[in-house]
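Notes to self after the Tuesday call (sharing in case useful).
The group wants a holo model before anyone commits to mutagenesis around the pocket. I volunteered. Ligand is coenzyme A. Logging inputs and output together so the record is complete.
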Amino acid sequence: MIIRNETPADRPRILELVAEAFATDEVPADEVVEVPLLQQLFDCADYLPGLSLVAELDGRVDGHVICTRGWIGDVPALGLGPLAVTPEAQRDGVGSALMESVIAAAEAAGEPAIVLLGHTGYYPRFGFVPASSLGIEAPDAAWGGHFMALPLAAFHSGIRGPFRYAEPFNNL
Ligand SMILES: CC(C)(COP(=O)(O)OP(=O)(O)OC[C@H]1O[C@@H](n2cnc3c(N)ncnc32)[C@H](O)[C@@H]1OP(=O)(O)O)[C@@H](O)C(=O)NCCC(=O)NCCS
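Result:
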């Protein structure tokens, strides 16, 4: 498995695997909201090229993760998502490799924190804690413990307040 930066040439395959990964019995692949979200994130001012990574297996892109610019109060930080692995490749460490790589890239870039909305059974293994325990407020209080944050080396207790995602998240 190779983890590398996404290039524009990867995008059709990324959108395809995101549709496959998020499709359910209730939501068909062509109605998965993460697809237009990701298209808008690729094109928005808050896209960060070093923080959009793909996992390539046997020459095919089978996983993707992206962090975009967000803010905790007035302090720049990262919003993570979507994260997706194509169904055939799930539960084989691909998601974990993408998470570990994007965390390392964010740390190397001097970012203070990564914030996300996700499964409480998955993200704590990477060090994520309830964002509220760090004084970071969710855009929607109903998200509760699903709204999580990972403090990085540059984090300090003065970084707190409401979290704001990149603009495309407001269109969900
Ligand atoms: C979530 C996802 C990215 C994980 O990728 P992956 O490559 O399957 O994950 P890994 O192989 O690294 O890790 C597998 C572990 O994650 C757990 N896991 C996978 N999906 C999970 C979920 N939705 N909730 C809780 N745990 C989950 C597995 O049980 C497994 O746990 P174990 O190691 O204790 O057995 C992938 O399942 C996926 O794309 N799902 C659909 C899209 C999605 O839900 N994205 C995340 C939105 S928050």
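Two things stood out.
The CA atoms of residues 37 and 171 lie 8 Å apart.
The chain has a mean pLDDT of 97.
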